[in-house]
Every structure is written in structure tokens, then in C-alpha cells.
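User: Fold both of these, please.

Assistant: Here is the first one.
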Amino acid sequence: MSEFNFDIEEANTLWKRWSLNAKKYTNREAIIHWVADGEPHRWTFGDLLNSAKKYSVHIKEAGIEPGNVCAIVMRHNPNFYPIYLGISRTAALPACLAYPNPRLHPDKFRQGIEGMSQRSGLDYILTERELEPLIRPLIEKPGSTIKDILFPLEWETQSEVDPKVDEKIEAIAESVKDTDPFLLQHSSGTTGLQKPVVLSHAAVLNHVKYYGKSIGFKETDKVVSWLPLYHDMGLIGAYHIPLACGIPSVQIDPFQWVLAPVIQLEAITKEKGTLLWLPNFAYNIYAEKIDAEELEGVDLSSVRRVINASEPIRHDSHQKFADRFVKFGFNPLALTGMYGMAETTLACCQTEDGKPISEVAADRNELSNGKFKFAEADAVVRICVSSGVLIDECKMKIVGENRNEIADGLVGEVAVHSISMFDGYRNYPEKTAEVFAGGWFYTGDYGFKHNNEFYIIGRKKDIIIVAGKNIYPEDIENVVNHVEGIVPGRVIAFGEDDEAMGTEQVAVVAETKTESEEEKKNTRMAILRAGMSIDVNIHKVYLVPSRWLIKSSAGKPSRKANKERLISGNDPQVWSK
């Protein structure tokens, strides 16, 4: 791995870093704004900064003050990037929020914005004119914290900035300290965003330094991403890190990617992309959902790292991806894994470059009893995939119920201490106190440590306990995804209370395209058999049509939201036995 040098002291806030990069790399491409049906817009570092200055004047003139939270609700647009930088220049805090999905009911969208404004204290919303009828009533509502709704895409930015106004705003940017808050990022959610994470300039820049070193950033790198910028992996990994390092990133519309995933492969081919972050479900989509004729001309030989993160890494997903794309120049050793979260800016650990990811064949029943043990010949096996070793200036430990560290090989909650730790949940001291103690953040994730590497196997809150036995929903979902007639990746498992038995029972919701009663009965039986194959008794099967499942803002079906939807009433689309 080549040495990665990143001197924080020469520019200790993000605006200073961007300004430095604009001087160093004036004509180097910073952001390639990719579109499916035309030529991309190519921002150089110099042009991006100059445009950001123009937007910062409008932002200041709108009355936005240092420390105000500016929520950006905007579709894929080339001017998003200078708007975002312009907010930061005025010492306000940008907060990227999801543009409403066409299928999301307007009331749900309004409830989400209102919940965020009440909890996070959103001050301004920067959006598109189309959303004004949805958002304006929230501003006019008595007691609203939202001061105004602004439409920056309509601002005039062709004229030169008044030097005196520019100097005043630059003075504000110069006065910002590295310990001051830089951005507000909301953790994943389905409608509201419950945990507003505050990150300082120091947290982000330290993360750039140490995580950049762990993945061996080079000046020749180019990130290619479709990840939404309201998600930590997209915002930090694919946007802030390359922007701070002075390397280009290709930004693809997430909505366009959903319609045609091959768009990212085409961008990699044309732009010679080297780095990408992907959630696990994307590997399956690439391996199974793209027709062969769409791949004509695809060349992935430039890719040196594909980083799997944001959900437990699955062996089968990597294998399918590598098997399909090796003939398109993809090097299987480029498959890597990461573990992290918004509260630590992004990454805590990362697998090493140039060698296969470590995997262990674990006895599934022993895992359920809280212990990693290599599976013997007659055991039910779960292949656990490593998320890697610690990055510099980050510590992790596995703890038991009393939050005391437990021995390697025992399953417990993951706790993290990092130089790039968040400053707490904004206006949410009780939630901060729940998860933060003695400098350690208690993640709610379950995993174990083996040979100095960390294996993440599920979420503590999602574990199903049947007669005292811990069952990880990921195991059930993984095996049901292979059942014929089920839409892959559109399965959730959760626990339903069984008052008669005094315990939980396993329930599965799966999307299917089968229609007749006979087909549904056969599919249900196949799901039950799939559960038996891993020694899990599935008590209830809910079959639903395609696109029924509610997804989180990270793009994954939400166990909690879908469980609540089922419990809330009789949906005529649900078939259950």
C-alpha cells in the first residue's frame, strides 16, 4: 500500500481544505455529475469553489447565520455541490435529506420533515419549487422552528461577487474553529430521522486522514458512486473524502441507478473508476439483475477496491459478483469490506488491500448461544465475512450485557472509540446518554473478534429470541432469498410475540410475483423448508406483492416499519398462513 499523506494542519476546516485544493488543483476535475441521457457536468476544483462563493452570498443575504441548520432537499442536480459548499462557507450546517420518493405519501413526507425540525431544529429548507406546496404549510404552522424555505436553483449566479461582501463572508469562514460543528447527518430511517448526528470539522478531516491511509488513497484514484448523499457512506465515503483529498468523484443519480443499475458500470468503464462503496444488496443486483447484452463494452479492470459496507457482508454476494464480472476485467482481490457508522463519521475497520477477505465457517447454533466456533462436518454452517482490522486512531471492543469487554470469539455488542467521533445527537441528550459512556459509543450491533479481525453478524435490537435461543434475522433472510418465486433481496424476518407460548416466534415477509392460491401455498412450503435447512422453525409467512416492503433511507427493507405495517391492520394485498 502506498503511503497516504494528509496534513490537517495546513487546512484545519473543510472550507480551508477546499480552498487549498482549488489553488493546488485549479483545473483538476473535482466532481463529474453523471446523467443517464447526456454529457456529464464536469466541475473543476477551481470552478466549484468560485460557484460556491456566489451561492454563499445569496445564503448570507437570505438571513442564514452561523450555526443555522440548512436542510437540502433536492434531486440530482449539478448545482447541489456548490450550494452545499456555500452553506459551509457561511458557517451554517448543511444537512442532506431525501427527496420524496414518488411512492411516498405526501403526509408521510411532511411528518418526517416536521419531526426532524422539532427534534433537530431545522432552520431553513433549501429545495425545489415543486415541493413548496408540501413544505410551506410547515413553516406557517404555529410553533414551527423552520424560518424559511429557499429555492437556490433559481438564484442568479452569473454575476461576479461584490468583493466587499465576499471579504465579509470569507472572514466568517476564517473564524471557524476545527472543533466547531460542520454538518448534521441523520441516521437511517424510513420516514422520520430520529438520530441527528453532529460532526465537527476535526472529526471529518481526521477521518479523511486515517481512513484515507487505510485504503491507500492515490492521486490517480477516482470514486464512482450512486449512493445517496443523505446516507453516511455516500456523503462521507464517496463525496467528502475525495473532495478533501483532491481527487475526482463521479456522482450518479440514485433514482436512475435503481431503474438501470448498469449505469454505474458504464461510468466506471468510461471514467476509469478505481474506488466504489456498495451495500451488500447491490452485489446481488449486479450479479443477477442485469441482462448480458447490457454489459457489452463494460470494462472493470481499473477498479482496485469495491468496499462492502452498511449491512452484514455476505459470502454468496461476493462470490456471485466476482464470478460474473471476472470476464469483464474485474479482479476478485478488489473485493473488500468495511464496518462503520455515522456516529464515527464513517469507518472503524477495513479489510486489507491485495488479499482475499477473511471468512470463517461458524457453527450457527453456537453463534446463537453467543460463541464463535468453527463448524464441524454435521453442523449447520454460517459463513461469516470479516469487516477487517481497525483503522488508525480507532478502538473497538466486544462487550457483554454489562458493557464489560468479553473474550475474543464470544458474541456481544460492538463498542467504538474514535478520533472522528460525533459530538452527540443534536438536541437529544437522553439518546446520546443511552449509547455514549466513558468515551465509548455502544453501537447496537452484534459481532465477535477473531484473529484481530471483526465480524459483524447482526443488530442487537433485531435479534429474535425463541425459547431462549438467539436467531439472527439475516440468516433467515439469506436462505429465503434463494427460494424460487421470491423477489431476491425483498425479504425480512422478525419476531412475533406468542403469548400462549410465552416467547417469540419467527415470522417472514417476502415479496413474490406468484398469484394463484396454489402457487402461494407452494412458495410458503418452500420458505418453511428453507428455514428448516438452517434449523429454524418459521411460524408465520406473509407473502406480499412486489414493491410492498417499506425501505429505510439506506435503501434496505426495514424490519421495524414493515412489522408495524402488518400489525396495524388487514392489508388485502397480504397473503398469510
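And the second sequence with its predicted structure:
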Amino acid sequence: MNFRNIKLVAIAVLLIFASLLFISYQSSTDDLRRDLLVKVVSFAINSGHYHPGDIDDDFSVKAYNLYVERIDYAKRFLLKEDVEKLSKYKTELDDEMKNNDFEFFDISVSILNKRINESESYYKEALEKPFYFEKDEYYEFDPDKKYYAANKTELKERWRKSLKYETLTRLNDLIEEQEKAVEKSDTVQEKSFAELEGEAREKVLKRYDDWFHRMSKLDETDRLNIYINSLVNVFDPHTQYFPPKDKENFDIRFSGQLEGIGAQLTQKNAYIEVIKIIPGSPSWKQGELEVGDYILKVAQGDEEPVDVVDMRLDEAVLLIRGKKGTEARLTIKKLDGAIKEISIIRDVVVLEETYAKSAVIRDDESNRIFGYVKLPSFYIDFNKINGKNCFDDVKNEIEKLKQENVDGIIFDLRNNGGGSLEDVVKIAGLFIEEGPIVQSRGRKGMKKTYKDLDPEIQYGGPLIVMVNAISASASEIFAAAMQDYNRAIVIGGNSTYGKGTVQNFTELDRMVPKKPVDMKPLGALKMTVQKFYRVNGGATQLNGVTPDIVLPDYYNYMDFGERDLDNAMPWSEIFPLTYNKCTPSYDVDYIEEISKKRIKGDSILVLVDENGKRLKKLREDTEYSLNYENYKSRIEKREKSGEKYERIGKDTLGLTIEILKTDLPGVEADTSKKARTEAWITGLKKDVYLVEAVNILNDIDNYRSENARKEK
């Protein structure tokens, strides 16, 4: 959305806000905030979305279906009569959106809260007494195969079966643990079936106590966020409303950095529990905060401590995070019950697993060295002018690999969900001479071409791009450009994710500068503003990128990707651009042919394919027996059938992988970093897909060497 549009929208919203103030002067600030929020979101979408569409009855039905599914996906709260009552509004949401009417939303929240409160008694009653596991009865897991319960009795029975199944799975685990313990030692005090069943029920009860406690902390604002996102997701699945705290978390994931103490937390009933200490963080350096500790109070420097027991996790996190250099005083409860106060000076916490990193792969037979670059996301820190970004990091990693005299590079974009459009264009430019990388089309058909303007090629040697079904957006732009330019061989499963759209963030508070000072921030709207297209005119939307060499993958047998999302934008194409294709120094068809033959004969990849088919059948079988003997028999058969595939990802496959010489001193000086690096390298050595990527680079080098020999 350009500045002129933002200005026009802001003026319009201010006029609406003034009218809202006039007609709502007796309303609470919260009511006024939600009225304003819906209006601002509506105007932003109407003015900036790629294809806003009509706000009509069809829109209303889609929004209604999304919302009702999201508030009770498993059909364990709402009754048939509740849904019938709500369905009267099925075609009214468009009118309510236009008129700032929240009747449907208010009624839905009231009904849902009532049913949640009722359900609390269901789980407690069901778990009070032992389950009878000799009866032949079944529980259906797939919500799409369930109807809403006709009455409370039926719903109560659904809860009973669900809880019985959870107890059954935990009971079976406890029995197996005891059997293994008895095998190892004859001094183990064996528990009876009844005792183990009681222990399993107790564990399930604790889980649901925690879950209902967390739900009790949800307020109307949380429900409103779901409602607004159900409205905006009708336009497309990637247009999303972000409350302020969610936007902050998004920025952290996107930049890979935050300012705080470096501890990952969870809500455990009334307590905030530490579940991970980030290596190298202030908490890690200070050394007193440990996994399993409960945080009871938080103080800012010399200020009075704030009790965080029974506080919502997101609110407690806001107190614990803070600016670099400030002090957080935490009152903690240790695992042994001891209470102590500790002081931690906040600092920048770097989430290293989100950043680019590289390694060298040595092939002992051919005496060749190949480079490996892993890029988890196309990250960038928008909050800092010279902040960390993936382009600078990738460029640096490639330069280090060139110093190692690598004979080829493997660029791994598996599980990379995308990120910065500008950075992917610049990274693609590292491998080609100047030219277009991707083109886009915005509102009203406005087109834009993103080009690499630098004629310098940082690396011109053989290149393999690894992708999978999770590789999306910017990853698909890079893979498609390398494929269209004949610059690389792309390998992976049947297809990448298929997200061919571009989103921008709009800070909603900037559009309403005159709102009341006591009104909570409005948050931000991530909005689809463009569709992008390959330089050959095709789109990755829905179809994704089809690799040059298709590898067996579990995802090949899953319904996974953009095409499986509600309201996904359709595929389309535009005119191709003029660009100069690279001329590879090898016969692409020949390299692909020998790789495909090798894949068919690779025992592990054959197992991966077979296991993908097996898992597909298991996923489709969604009804489970609640009879212990039947359940045990089913589990044993499943485990027996799975034994054949246990070696997948377990075997070390003969790859010699090392960290780069320039990185070695820094790794050796940090014991935590050394342990993480060694674990990463160990995982790479078991990666069957990486083995094939190395084989392909060897094929390329063998072809070039043979050709050079013939020419002589």
C-alpha cells in the first residue's frame, strides 16, 4: 500500500472514528476499540488488498464456516442446538461487518464460554473412576467424520471416550516401561494393572487441569482475534490480523533476534515454567536459572516485584522481556522447592538456528570438496537499518566456501517457509549475471519486475538446490529462478508448497493517530498485496516448483500445501520476460537420468517411499478401539510393520562433513556452540537426501572431467 493510499485511508478512518465517538460516548473503551478495529481492518483491505472481493452473503457464509470451525474444531464443546442458533447469522456477517454490529460474535462467545464451563465437569467426572477396557467400543478422531452432539448426554459420552483413549495410550506406555524395567532388574516393584491405570488417569487429569486453566485465562479480546481473522481469511489464507503481542513474536521469528533474558517459557497450570535456556543468552551466562524452575515474581530493576503466579503467559513474557542493559529480578522456585531471587541483565538474544550456516563435505573417493549452505528462512531485521539479514550472511558463507576451494555448492532450502522478497532477489543474483529474478502483479494489474542489477557472479560453479513440500514463497522464487536460468539442478519431493503471493504489514495504530490514550494498541494487518510469477511467466501459486529430480518423500503422500488451504488464490500466468539462460558445463538430461536410476536402486530412498505409503494408510484409519487387548494388538502390528523402516535417518551414511576452517576457532572456544555444531554435523551425516545431492555433484564433475579428457 503506497503512502497516498495510507493517507486517504487514515482520513476516512478518522471520519468514521469521529462518528463512532459520537454514537458510542457511553460505551466502554473496549467496545469502541473493537468497533474501530473492524472498521480500520475493512478500510485497509478495501484499499490495499490484491483482490478484496465483495463483502456479500457468499463472503459471510465463508467467514461463518471458518469461525465456527476454529472455535470448536474437535466438536467437543458446541451442541447441535448451539450451531443451529448461530447458523441463523450465516449470511449476516457481511452486514454486521459493515454496520459495526457484533451480535453474532457476542452470542457465540457467550455460548462457547457456557459450554466450556460445562465441559469442565465432564472430564473431572469421567476421570474419577477406573475405565473398563474390556468393552468393545471405538473413538473417532477425525472431526470431519463427526456430527455436533445432539445433547449434553451425547457430548458427555464423547468426552468419556476421548479421555478413555488418552488414558489407554498412557496406560500402555506405563505397562511397556514397567516390562522393560523388570527385564533390566529383578528388584523392580511391579505395579498391578489397576495401579497403572490409576496413574495413567492421574496424568490425563493433570493435563486437562492445565488445559482448562489456560482456557480460563482467555478473554473476549482473544476470541475477537479469532473472529477478525475468520473475516480476513476469506480474502486469502495469508491475510492475517496480528494483535500487538503476536506481531512482536512474528518480528522475533523473522529477525532471529530479541531483547530479553533468553529463556523459553510455558504455562503449567498457575505457574510460568522454564522449558529451555537459549545457549549464549543472558540466562545461560548468568547460570542460576534452570529448566524446570517456576518464575513466581518479576521486578524491573529496583521496582517492586509483580506476582506472575496465575498470570497469562503472554502478559508474564511482556514483564520478562525488555531492553538490552536493563535488569530483570526474578523470584524463582527451584525443583527442590527452594525459593530464591536472581538478577539477570537483559541483552540481545540470538536464535542461531534461524541463521544461515555452512559446512564442507569431503568425498574421499574422488578427493573432491563440496560446500553446503543451510538457509532456514529469508530473514531480515526491519527494525534496524544495518540489522542482520540473510543476503549478507549467505554471501559471507559462500565466500568462506570459495576459500575452501569447493568443487560445487549444495544450497539447502528444505523447510524454509520464505521471508524477505528483496533479499531472495539479491541472493539469486549471487549465482547469475544481471537479469530479472521474479515478476509480480498487484492491484488492478500493476506489474513490477525484480532484477539483479549486479553483473558480477559471486559463485559460478555447479549448484544443487534442495527443496521439499515446506519450502515456500521466497524459497520457491529462488528455486524457480535457478531452474528457469538453467543455473542449478533442483532436487526434492513432488513439489514445493505453492505459495505465490506477497504480503506487507500495515500498522493499524498509524492509521488512527487520535484514538483515546487509554485504548489498547490495535495491532497490525498482514495483507496480500501482490502475486508473483516466474520469469518464464508461470506461477508457483498452488502448483509450487516441480524439482528437476524428484526424490521419495513422506510429503509426497500427504495433502499438504497451498492448494489444501481454504480460500487460496487461484493459479494464473502472465507473459514471460526476456532473460539469458545459462549454458551448463554438463549435459543436464544425462545427469538427471543417472540420478533417477540411482534413486530407484537406493535402499533407503526405496524405504522412504514405502513408508510414505504406509503412513498414508495409517492416517486414513481414524477410528480407534478402546478395548485394551485390541488396542495393544493394533499397536504391536503397527510397530512390527514399522521395524522395517527404523534405519531411516538412523544410519551414518559415509559422508565426511566438517565445519569451515574459518569457523573452527569460534566453535572450539564455546563449549555450547561446539556441542550444537557437532549435533548438526551428525544429523547431516545421516541425511540420505544430502547423499544424493553429493552424488549429483560428483556426476557433474565426472562428466566435465570426461569431456575435458576427450577434448585433449
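Residues 1-6, 18-26 have pLDDT under 50 and may be disordered.
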